[in-house]
Design goal:
Layout (H helix, E strand, L loop, with lengths): L1 H14 L3 H20 L5 H8 L3 H29 L1 H20 L4 H29 L3 H32 L4 H4 L1 H15 L13 H22 L7 H23 L13 H31 L4 H7 L1 H41 L8 H29 L5 H36 L6 H7 L3 H11 L1 H36 L38 H4 L55
Length: 597
């Protein structure tokens, strides 16, 4: 581990006072990845009108980026631990820029799908690298908490601003402009990253497990793809859903067993045996499950029930973004004051309260109520994510920061996919029955209208007359009813997350600084404890002092061995300082541990 220690010293020297500039570069990098996850959503109608993709091709245009990104996070996160996180990040910049240019000028659906997949590769290289470099540049937990607060706030901003920015660009330019906005930022980030970002690595012991990395990538891809098929309306027992889910789960089980047997694993599975780490990962999944599922349903409600445009919808979601930013900025102080357990648990409770408040929404616009609900929702969820990410990253060893960051980001993506699948299924189950059997509407038309509210509006327009108006009204009422049921289910899941968070520590434990003034990383079970150098002199050096010259008092290091303590015994040595303890001058016995062993 001496190489790791030396690399850490070089990293601290390179970062120094510029670590906040490094944080700025990392946050802009994350902003790019977060924007591309949502910026295309409002451009889908324009892409459909221009490229004329089939239904399957359109699905892959939207899903290729998050699928590829989620499946490769562990691969590139652990690769960064071996070859250098800065190196992986810079390569990710290059791939992201090239893919953005190809996507902007794609002339066919297949070219756009390939470009989106390449964007996912670049995003998978960038996302864990930003968090693991942050972990290395900010070794002090208090400063790292501030940095993670900014980092999580930027992630929330990117995800929420994406639809607003995309709607503006599509209205004023063409759909390819949503990808071109990446190029100016990358033109600045690439040279800045080469100059400012310090290189950091893990211990690098043993060969990199290529087969294990590919196994993890394929397993995550299968699970996420199966979950997304559930969210798209496929039955849970259909081959398109069950096949990828079972294959992915089997590969992940084999991957875990393989890592437990290897002397130098990609990811030390003993991290999951620590309650803080495993609970933090679970809280990230639950928080994202609620956030993404609710955002999707909220967008449909704002556009299809209240009749807002895509740009107006994005603007209505801005209070959620501003509240999330406030939670990220104040998160460090909150964490120090209340501790991880209360912070994450009360964040879940606050989010559940916001969700229950939104149940009061109906078929008519209530801007004040909607804004209040979104503010509480954004602040509560960001508080939860902040506490969970900070606890997870602080619990992981520094030399496995890339792997830990990849686990956190994979949990983030998996929770998002599960949220769309689970809450979307609840929504469909509550919406469809009443729409499929509307009186006066043909059975075929009712069955088609039961697929979604947008489809119901199209069927109602084709029917026209009283039947069309009746179907439209019934569909709106059923959608609002389904929204209320979904919100209640979401509130229950959030309260479950609040209970799970009770396994987190009560206080924010900051370890004592080591010999170089840097907090020592937490130790996994079975790892040897690294001791700080002893500050007292060995016996042979103490004997070389001139006779009669008292030795200087040793440092009050609690780990010093009392049997080699150079201080004079106040009970037997006349050189003892009587002011050190009032009982020393009278010969009274001192408390245990104060004399010589």
């Amino acid at each position: 581990m001496s190489g790791t220690t030396t690399a850490g010293a070089r990293l601290r020297a390179a970062a120094g006072a510029s670590r906040w500039v490094v944080l700025f570069v990392l946050c802009v990098s994350l902003l790019l990845v977060a924007l591309d996850a949502t910026v295309l959503h409002v451009a889908v109608p324009a892409v459909t009108g221009d490229l004329r993709p089939s239904g399957v091709e359109l699905l892959w245009i939207v899903d290729a980026y998050p699928l590829v990104c989620a499946s490769l996070l562990i691969l590139f996160g652990t690769l960064g631990d071996r070859i250098g996180r800065r190196r992986v990040l810079l390569i990710g910049y290059g791939l992201f820029g090239a893919a953005s240019a190809v996507a902007a000028f794609a002339g066919s659906p297949m070219v756009l799908i390939g470009a989106r997949a390449l964007l996912g590769v670049g995003g998978a290289m960038i996302m864990p690298a930003t968090l693991s470099i942050l972990r290395a540049v900010f070794p002090d937990r208090r400063e790292r908490a501030v940095a993670i607060g900014v980092w999580t706030a930027v992630a929330a901003v990117g995800a929420a601003v994406g639809p607003v920015l995309g709607g503006f660009l599509v209205e004023h330019f063409w759909w390819g402009s949503v990808f071109l906005i990446n190029l100016p930022l990358l033109a600045v980030l690439l040279p800045l990253g080469r100059v400012l970002l310090p290189e950091s690595k893990g211990c690098g012991d043993g060969p990199w497990d290529v087969l294990g990395a590919l196994m993890a990538a394929a397993g995550v891809l299968g699970v996420v793809f199966g979950v997304k098929r559930l969210g798209a309306g496929e039955g849970p027992l259909s081959l398109a859903t069950l096949g990828p889910l079972c294959a992915g789960a089997a590969l992940l089980i084999v991957f875990v067993r393989r890592q437990r047997r290897r002397e130098h694993p990609l990811i030390d599975m003993r991290m999951f045996a620590r309650p803080t780490f495993s609970t933090s990962v679970g809280c990230i999944v639950l928080a994202m499950l609620a956030l993404v599922g609710l955002e999707l349903i909220a967008v449909q409600y704002l556009q299809l029930v209240l009749g807002l445009s895509p740009l107006e919808t994005g603007l209505r979601l801005l209070p959620l973004t501003f509240a999330a930013m406030a939670a990220g900025v104040t998160g460090s102080a909150t964490l120090r004051r209340v501790g991880p357990r209360r912070m994450v648990s009360w964040g879940f409770v606050l989010t559940a309260v916001a969700v229950l408040l939104l149940v009061l929404m109906g078929q008519h616009d209530r801007p004040g109520l909607l804004t209040a609900g979104f503010v509480l929702l954004g602040f509560g969820l960001q508080t939860t994510l902040f506490g969970a990410y900070e606890s997870m990253l602080s619990e992981a060893p520094a030399d496995q920061a890339g792997g830990a960051a990849a686990i956190g980001e994979t949990s983030y993506q998996l929770g998002a996919g599960m949220g769309i699948a689970l809450l979307g299924s609840v929504m469909n189950a509550a919406y469809a029955p009443a729409v499929s059997s509307v009186r006066g509407v043909p059975a075929g038309a009712g069955s088609a209208a039961a697929d979604s509210l947008g489809e119901a509006y199209q069927v109602a327009a084709r029917l026209g007359g009283p039947a069309g108006a009746t179907l439209r009204t019934a569909a709106r009422q059923s959608f609002v009813h389904g929204l209320h049921i979904t919100l209640l289910v979401s509130a229950g899941l959030l309260l479950l997350g609040a209970l799970a968070a009770l396994r987190l520590p009560r206080t924010m434990e900051c370890p004592a600084p080591g010999a170089e003034g840097v907090p020592e990383p937490r130790r996994l079970q079975g790892q040897p404890r690294t001791r700080a150098p002893q500050l007292h002199k060995p016996p042979e050096q103490r004997g070389s002092r001139p006779s009669g010259t008292p030795e200087p008092r040793a440092s009050s290091d609690p780990r010093a061995d009392p049997r080699t303590d150079p201080r004079p015994d106040p009970r037997t040595d006349p050189r003892a300082d009587p002011h050190a303890d009032p009982r020393a001058a009278t010969g009274a016995p001192l408390p245990a541990g104060r004399g010589r062993g």
